[in-house]
Amino acid sequence: MKEKDRLKRKSKFLSLVLRHKPEVIGISMDEQGWVDVSELLEKLDANGRSMSMEELEEVVAKNDKKRFAFNEDHSRIRASQGHSLDLELGYSPSEPPNELYHGTATRFIDSIRKSGLEKRNRHHVHLSANLNTAKDVGGRHGKPVILIVKAKEMQEAGFKFFVSENAVWLTDNVPVDYIVFPE
Ligand code: HQG
């Protein structure tokens, strides 16, 4: 297997464990999503998914979206965002730029026009300050379309925004009034 594919496979499995289903390897996670690194390595091993500390460091460092973060002394690790588990990540509210972008697929537009942006299976609605990122995110679901979110206006109306450690903007939901749809 190519080096890049090997890392991607490991990263995908880590996403499963750290964002969605820690129970697949029976690991305990605290309420902010952190797990103990030595327990993680042990349990990966026990479940036929062995990884050395060097490999784990490599996955964290080379991951294309910097999805995972260590604590200061690298004794604990967590996913920076993207969870479906009900956690309290502990990010403080931040002041968003005037506009943020949400990439979605054309087939969702009618539904979004009715109910706004919902978090669906995830913990938050994910927004980006960067158009290209939004386009890529939308392309995962079909023909991409970019929605503009009037983030500053939302915040002024009392909605909270958070930025994850890897620069993804997070909010609870986006009502239709704050979305600019393409013509
Ligand atoms: C859509 C990736 C119908 C929403 C990316 C999206 C991101 C609605 C889909 C992160 C809707 C949910 C998240 C409504 C929202 N009606 N469809 N009312 N409201 N939707 O994957 O934002 O690679 O849960 O537009 O980089 O695509 O995992 O969210 O299309 O940051 O690290 O429902 O996932 O990061 O899909 O992606 P997702 P997303 P990772």
Write structural notes for this entry.
The structure is a single chain. The protein is an alpha+beta fold and 183 residues long. The chain has two domains: 3-79, RNA 2'-phosphotransferase, Tpt1/KptA family, N-terminal domain (Arc Repressor Mutant, subunit A, Orthogonal Bundle); 100-180, ADP-ribosylation fold (Alpha-Beta Barrel), CATH 3.20.170.30. It has six helices and nine strands; from the N terminus they run αβααβββαβαβαβββ. A three-stranded antiparallel beta sheet has the order 1-3-2. Strand 7 and strand 8 (169-171) form a beta hairpin. Helix 1 packs across helix 3. The termini are far apart. The protein binds ligand HQG. Ligand HQG binds next to strand 4 and helix 4.
How helix-rich are the residues, as a percent range? 25-40%
Under CATH, the topology of the largest domain can be stated as ADP-ribosylation fold
How many separate structural domains? 2
Ligands bound, unique: ligand HQG
Q: Which ranges are low-confidence, i.e. pLDDT below 50, for 5 or more consecutive residues? A: none
Largest sheet: 3 strands, antiparallel
What amount of the residues lies in strands? 15-25%
The CATH C-level name of the largest domain is Alpha Beta
The total of beta strands comes to 9
Structural class: alpha+beta
The CATH architecture of the largest domain comes to Alpha-Beta Barrel
N- to C-terminal separation?
A: 45 Å
Sheet with most strands: strand arrangement: 1-3-2
Shape: globular
Helical stretch tally: 6
**What is the string of SSEs from the N terminus onward?**
HEHHEEEHEHEHEEE
